[in-house]
Design goal:
Layout (H helix, E strand, L loop, with lengths): L8 E5 L7 H11 L3 E5 L2 H6 L2 H8 L11 H15 L3 E6 L5 H4 L9 H24 L3 E11 L13 H23 L2 E7 L13 H11 L7 H12 L10 E4 L10 H7 L4
Parallel strand pairs: 1-2, 1-3, 3-4, 4-5, 5-6
Helix pairs in contact: 1-3, 1-9, 4-6, 6-7
Length: 271
């Protein structure tokens, strides 16, 4: 324990159960001396075990639908009041596609569901940032982190319209990074994480093969959720004050690889 976040306050979105990256970020933030509130959509709260996490971290859970501006306004205001001051960090760990969940292929999406995908997985970030800015809820040198995936840049069959949502999310990170940095010196970044066996990630069709391929391609192997949490903590800390508007790959080297010897060998097994 190094108290990297001693005296800092924040909000952590998206903790559902012990497999969630947001859950592990909350545990690490607590270990490093931070105080924060937890939030998730009301329906997710009924499915998960977030109250157990809140008790362990000595905090409260504030239900909020991240697609509803009124909910976000109340969440931010109540968090500032509960924590006794402005925020120093926010984690946006939100993503869901009805099309992917219901097995719709990318070339046969339900467009109403696609709009929900974009609203939940990307527009929620813009709504959150706009709310924080209007309420002047973030301290100078604060840090906002959003979780994303490399499908925002490359084609991955099975990831569906989530790829479009992540690409939009990353664009919003850059745009708000400019405006928030200029006005309040707030840093805004995204972390592009390896395939991770979370409750949401495991719901993608062919996830096991997907996971295995990325692991075989990456010199260090897939980055575990706990290490993603550690990386997130460094971005919340004062050690990364001048890192902003970046999409930071936390993927064991996958994003830079062309092909690995292990994958090449597997292609040759049938010959």
């Amino acid at each position: 324990m190094h108290n990297l976040l001693a005296g800092k306050r924040g909000i952590i979105f998206g903790a559902l159960d012990e497999n969630s990256i947001a859950w592990k970020v909350a545990q690490k933030a607590h270990e490093q001396g931070a105080r924060f509130t937890l939030t998730n959509a009301p329906v997710a709260l009924r499915m998960g075990e977030i109250k157990k996490l809140a008790d362990a971290c000595g905090t409260i859970v504030i239900p909020a639908d991240a697609t509803v501006v009124d909910d976000l306004e109340k969440l931010v205001q109540q968090s500032v009041e509960h924590l006794g001051g402005k925020l120093d960090f926010v984690l946006h760990s939100i993503g869901m596609s009805p099309n992917v969940r219901k097995g719709k292929t990318y070339t046969d999406v339900n467009y109403e569901w696609m709009m929900k995908t974009l609203d939940i997985s990307a527009l929620s970030f813009h709504k959150l940032m706009q709310t924080c800015m209007k309420q002047d809820a973030l301290n100078e040198w604060g840090s906002v982190v959003a979780l994303t995936y490399i499908a925002a840049q490359r084609a991955f069959p099975g990831y569906g319209d989530m790829a479009d949502a992540k690409a939009t999310l990353e664009s919003m990170v850059r745009s708000f990074g400019y405006y928030y940095g200029q006005q309040k010196r707030v840093r805004v970044n995204s972390i592009s994480q390896s395939p991770t066996a979370t409750t949401a990630g495991s719901g993608i069709k062919g996830f096991d093969s997907f996971f295995g391929f990325a692991d075989s391609m990456s010199p260090l192997g897939n980055a575990p959720a706990e290490d993603c949490a550690n990386y997130t903590i460094t971005l919340f800390s004062d050690l990364t004050r001048y890192v902003t508007m970046q999409n930071l790959y936390h993927d064991g080297g996958f994003s830079t690889m062309g092909v690995s010897e292990l994958v090449m060998a597997r292609f040759g097994e049938g010959k």
